[in-house]
Amino acid sequence: MGFNTSLGLQGSYDLTTPSPVVSNNNYIDFTSSATAGWAQQYLPELYEQEVERYGNRRLGGFLKMVGAEMPMESDQVVWSEQNRLHIAVKSSGAAGSTTSVQLEGTGGYISLGSANVNSFRVGNTVIVTDAATGLKTLKCYVSETSGVATDAGSNNIKVLPYTQTDLSGGDGSAVVFSDNDQVNIFIYGSEFGKGSASMGDGTNSGTGLKAQFQQYNNKPIIIKDHFRISGSDTASIGWVETTDEAGQVGYSWYLKSAGETRMRFEDYLELAMVEAVEVTVGASTVDSTIADANDATGTQGLFDAIENRGNIFEDLEDLADFDLILKNLDKQGAIEENMLYVNRDLALTIDDMMAGLNSNYQGGASFGVFSNSADMALNLGFSGLRRGSYDFYKSDWKYLNDAAGRGGFGDISGVLIPAGVSSVYDEVLGKNVKRPFLHVRYRRSATDDRRMKSWVTGSVGSASYSGTDEMQVHYLSERCLITQGANNFVLLKES
After folding, report:
1. Residue 373 φ then ψ, to 5°
2. What is the pTM of this model?
């Protein structure tokens, strides 16, 4: 049995055109012929408070739980992230190109590509394994570097196997590589003879390896909204009881509309940081459509950052899938405390998974973050779980459930975010600083704070800044999201 969609977004209430004031559509016109005969004589039983049929309608609050907000004074934020300390070159491209075997003479040559060839030096000892299965493994000695020329090109190193004549295993060895086999290479050390020159000197070609880093940046966007109402409608009294932001109760309907505009805008500040993307040069006309051409750059939100720099896992269904995520985390920063923000379906899947283990699994999983209390064992809505050496803290993310948000799509089921802080180089400060992996930067100077601005214009009340008989409430923010160490994040999707 399915659900009647008439109770969802397809209902009579139009989210795009909320009624700002009391109008003929939301109160009884006592002068109408339709109400004559009773409405003028008898007092109807009025419920003055609205029914909260959608509960708490807010979609924000996620970033407040996982990140922080910090000021900035420029048009972009630039940060640097460490590369790996050890050298491992993975296959890429088509066979016969980058990181592939070339059988020429004793030993063999391996094509590395121009970006990787200088990372290897004569004297390095390496492990060579096939990229397809990882089952063919051979330990070798690097005998030639600096992009030695072969028939296959110039971005090559020559390796000599320790246990066979060459990479092809021509001596009958079990480990056999063929021309154009794609491989992975990992440096595990070096070997030199007695009295030999230092690595990089004399016949040992190559230079010292310089520290490498990857630089990223993001730019803030300006987010706006406003509410306007005529002077006449501000002086009207409705019959629906409203509560303003200060908690004062009254019957001025416009105060509710103004309050909802602010709440909606506050949600937009978060949703934009989650969903935003950058303008792709040559593929979008957004920058030429917005006033001040070329000022619209977009910004990289959370989902886009993970899709471009992080990890994507589709269809998490059981413990085996969960363990695959853990194994990938091992390959990244191995950050042991992580936050899981998920939709209802995935939350129930994880609960069922852990509940089953709790009853019949021996020694494989525990819920150590809460010390396996009896209350925790009986509660199917587990707040935390431990698997392997990792702790996970799980929470529902309303945005992924609500029909007015991602809940209406169903393509994203959750996100895994590392807890704690990362150490990065700050270009402005000129030193390494610790920042939450996920945080917001907003524009602020000594003269203007653009974190969350609001101001009133018009002729109503004390706002006497125009000749128009109206009141306008304006909202503005300028901000961007910084996703550091995105390789430790996982976007959970449905296929």
Report:
1. -65, 155
2. 0.74
